[in-house]
Amino acid sequence: MARISLAGATDEVAARDRAFADLVAKVGPIRYLPRFPDGPFGMLVRSIISQQISAAAAQAIIGRTAATVGGSFTAQGIAAASDDDLRTAGLSRNKVASLRDLSAKVLNGTVDVNPSTRLSDEEVVRRLTQVRGIGRWSAEMYLMHCLRRLDVWPVGDLDVREGYALAWDVDPAPTARELDPLGEPFRPYRSVVARYCQEAVFLDRAP
């Protein structure tokens, strides 16, 4: 069976749920993020580097780190770089340790960064969260934005919870535990609903 498109999945969920259809009408079509030139591994590296720093600082450090390891991110390139070189690029000791752990787990096969991996969503999350510095939320964003999986429901994402409250007129916003079963009617396209919930928050915050 051919995989349904993002637009097709959106249309199918909108046909099931009036509140979601209204949200789609307000937000308009959504698209996948462009693919990273260095693939899923590159996205994971960027995710680790970007943690707890500003977007501008992250971009600068990402650029310097990429230059340090040969221009693009590979497990082999990270593994071959010295700690001193990575620290000079602007990485903290903790982030150097995280990148080393990620590289090691990719090289030994624990983490599969093949974009066509046949591992289940939960197995991808289980393996990724063994990596230092990668939690469930980061793993779920990887599934949604990099592997383009359509049935991810990131209940730990505050914007998803707040966006659900806005779209479905729920007050207060559901907790992660409360949101979990609320995604069931949208299977197997919960990622689409999550993306639109995030967009609902961005729209609400717009001046």
TrEMBL record:
Q: Which UniProt keywords apply?
A: DNA damage, DNA repair
One GO biological-process annotation of the entry reads: base-excision repair, AP site formation
Among SUPFAM superfamilies, the record links this protein to: DNA-glycosylase
Q: Which reaction does it catalyse?
A: Hydrolysis of alkylated DNA, releasing 3-methyladenine, 3-methylguanine, 7-methylguanine and 7-methyladenine
Identify one Gene Ontology CC term for this UniProt entry. protein-DNA complex
Q: HhH-GPD domain spans which residues?
A: 49-199
Enzyme Commission code: 3.2.2.21
Please name the top-level EC class of this enzyme: hydrolase
Record's protein name: DNA-3-methyladenine glycosylase II
Species this protein is from:
Asanoa ferruginea
